[in-house]
């Protein structure tokens, strides 16, 4: 998932250069822009090493792979980069400096950045991506649904009363892949992780079962605010406004980084902004993403100190209080988060895999490379957009529930075949 594209309305003019003053400098590159870049600059402002080194920061966007791959002039190459894809670290580790061995652990997080026994990055910012946001008045005195069947029953009930239950920002393809990843992770974590490891398992029955579950949800008549056509023109930030500003829908699936956007642009009182865990089918999914700090060759002392600083609770605290930020680097749980976010359970989830080797599961798209990870118009994003349209658009007025289910199942079969073909092309 490309988090830099997630909160577009918060964007401010990009701040490309930092606060150099002629001292020996540290050049930092990241994917953030706008509001997120502003928060990151606040983190860098508190870096104790600024007494010795100047620090400049640039928003690299889609060019982060070029910078990490060291395919630019030396004067433009960063010393430190914040990267959102473990696959990018794996593919470019010849251009990176292994970090100090004493920082390595056997956590799920470190294993994502460990190759040939060396750790090539420290996680700075992480994200919890298994959440559904809603207005607290939606359920009255009831409890949020915990399992998939209860959630679909709620969606059907709301839709039957003319209240669209969901807003889906399908213009951003990663929104749809996040839905699929949560469903597959809940159904069959082993197959999910096999796919992330590069196994040719796209024709596995669990993949088809996950697609059919999605078809079951997306084909409910009236389930999406404005229908499929409007959803395809709705970006993630707009889907949040559909729920919390314009009251067009009751719920929206989205990560914790939705919080600052909702609170800044919603008309909903903050005490009515709530979330519940993405409903389980078999296991409760805990899908995560993150941004890791890496040190590029040739190593600089200042760059190494900055990476160590970014992995501290003090650095995290400079951003966490504004929302849109979680950290795994806070063993004493001293970092303060926004009071209304209820961040405690989120933190417990994202660090829970540190010792037992598996609860935390990283975003599948962010672990895959080539055509399959794809951009708009190709790869999984295109496949899931086509699937979404096919299952959520009635073929004829008065279509029966049986006909709707059969159509969704046929669409799932076609999507599975397309995913398998894309994987083979990218192999």
Q: Would you give an account of this structure?
A:
The chain is of the alpha/beta class. It folds into 2 domains: 3-125 and 290-334, D-Maltodextrin-Binding Protein, domain 2, CATH 3.40.190.10; 131-285 and 363-426, 3-Layer(aba) Sandwich (D-Maltodextrin-Binding Protein, domain 2), CATH 3.40.190. The chain is 41% helix and 12% strand. The chain is built from 18 helices and 11 strands. It has helices at 34-45, 64-68, 86-91, 108-111, 148-160, 173-187, 189-196, 205-218, 227-231, 236-244, 259-265, 301-310, 313-320, 343-351, 353-356, 370-373, 379-392, 401-426; strands at residues 25-30, 54-59, 80-83, 114-115, 118-119, 122-128, 131-135, 251-253, 273-277, 287-295, 361-362. Strands 1, 2, 3, 6, 10 and 11 form a 6-stranded mixed β-sheet that branches. A 3-stranded antiparallel β-sheet has the order 8-7-9, covered by helices on one side. A two-stranded antiparallel ribbon has the order 4-5. Helix 1 links the parallel strand 1 and strand 2 (54-59). It starts with 24 loop residues before the first strand and ends with a helix. 49% of the residues are buried. Residues 6-23 and 354-358 have low confidence and may be disordered.
